[in-house]
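Ops channel
N.P.: pipeline sanity check, posting one input/output pair.
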């Protein structure tokens, strides 16, 4: 059984006979996309973990792309009816859109087991554990033989619009150069299955010999990494023409460690 943002009003906190529960089937997976409190936030979806696997994309409360202004949302690419529904219940309806996208991306939507979304964002629950990470949506049941008895909360990020899946990488850059400069450093990943756009690793003061680490959610699963492109920019004309390089770049893939 797959719960697509099961309802909060009249159901949350009720006995298990009334609502969706892990005892309802051999395997129950749940996608939570609108779990902010109904009062005052108008969240339609249930917050507690209730299945064998509970996925909280983007933290489970506010979905990226749902904060567009009402006019652009109602006059939607999929038509006014679709746009109006999205305006009224955008977070709630993301659950079925993620699910339908998950059918097309068997390697996408990896959920990282974690105690909270804040810890996930800080990279504390990276990479996937030895047994791997389950996939949110259609292919969640590939993980059912690895499910533990207690509730498992899983976190991941998605894109703002279709296609929704993102792939998580940890990128560490050690800088080389003679003097510190202000600016930003970006990295793009290239691999056997595609490449990513540039992702910011750090900005502010860039110091040679320092190592900067970022967790990037890439819009492409690059496969085996074959090349990394490093770019830095100091945002304004500097007459001393400082030079800055990358001494080492380490890329860790969340999925296979």
């Amino acid at each position: 059984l797959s719960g697509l943002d099961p309802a909060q009003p009249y159901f949350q906190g009720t006995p298990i006979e009334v609502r969706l529960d892990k005892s309802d089937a051999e395997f129950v997976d749940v996608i939570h996309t609108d779990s902010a409190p109904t009062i005052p936030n108008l969240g339609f979806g249930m917050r507690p973990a209730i299945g064998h696997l509970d996925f909280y994309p983007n933290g489970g409360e506010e979905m990226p792309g749902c904060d567009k202004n009402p006019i652009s949302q109602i006059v939607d690419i999929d038509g006014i009816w679709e746009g109006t529904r999205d305006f009224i219940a955008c977070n709630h309806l993301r659950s079925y859109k993620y699910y339908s996208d998950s059918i097309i991306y068997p390697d996408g939507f990896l959920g990282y087991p974690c105690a909270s979304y804040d810890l996930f964002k800080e990279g504390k629950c990276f990479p996937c554990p030895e047994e791997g990470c389950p996939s949110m949506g259609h292919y969640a049941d590939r993980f059912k033989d690895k499910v533990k008895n207690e509730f498992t909360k899983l976190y991941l990020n998605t894109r703002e619009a279709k296609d929704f899946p993102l792939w998580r990488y940890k990128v560490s850059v050690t800088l080389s150069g003679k003097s510190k400069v202000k600016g930003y450093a970006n990295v793009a990943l290239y691999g056997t299955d595609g490449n990513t756009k540039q992702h910011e690793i750090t900005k502010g003061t860039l110091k040679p010999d320092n190592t900067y680490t970022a967790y990037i959610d890439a819009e492409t699963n690059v496969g085996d990494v074959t090349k990394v492109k490093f770019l830095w920019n100091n945002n304004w004309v500097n007459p001393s023409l400082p030079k800055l390089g990358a001494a080492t770049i380490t890329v860790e893939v969340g999925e296979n460690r």
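N.P.: looks fine end to end. The chain has four helices and twelve strands.
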